[in-house]
Amino acid sequence: MRFYLMAAAMGALAACQPAVPDSAAGVGDPGRGVGFDSYAQSVPAAPSVSSQTLDGAAAPAPAPAATGGFDPDLVAASLAEDERAAAANSGREVVNASPSNPAPAPVSNPGISDENDFDAVASRQTIASDKARIAQNAAQYEVVQPTALPARDGSGGPNVVEYALQTKHARGTKVYTRLGFGGQSKMARNCAKYPNDDDAQIDFLASGGPSRDRMGLDPDGDGFACNWDPSPFRRAAQN
């Protein structure tokens, strides 16, 4: 009797368990999943979203799918935000370079030539007028033929350039004898009368120099009055 009761209980339990699907049913059939009648049954369906929530409030709209383009409103809003940020940083209004926002026209300045501006030149010149202007400029050319150098007649007084090239000693080298006292102070007073050392040297040579120094312009006897320096003329002749 006890055996029969246990067998009846086990049969009742077996009847309550669900049937196990045949896993081999989907093998070789691409439309059927393992343990399912079809592949669609193996993928859970996405839950449907109602336009109304449980409490009656509107549900958020789904995000639009990407299409590869751009939203003009979003671009304009982004540019406006960039302009506000730049203006806040620099304190100046941002100027965007675009065909709809051309650069300001330059202010006319009469002091600046517009010869390189094709439109400006074309507005006031023509091919004929340009040809006439070239001919006018060519007519004003003057060719100067070279002439012979003028000969020196010896009446122009001493020539400091010729004297500098004839001498070879350095300035300060005693070549001529000088007599008298207070030579440096006398030279300072007398040299102050000349505007430059070249005029003093010319006057010195015209008054008997370099062998004689009547005006006290060459107390060291080097033949150069008032510290006149022949070096620049010598270097020019060497070049």
UniProtKB/TrEMBL annotation:
Top-level taxon of the source organism: Bacteria
UniProt region (Disordered), positions on chain: 85-116, 206-239
Annotated protein name in UniProt: Excalibur calcium-binding domain-containing protein
Organism listed in the record: Pseudosulfitobacter pseudonitzschiae
High-level lineage: Bacteria, Pseudomonadati, Pseudomonadota, Alphaproteobacteria, Rhodobacterales
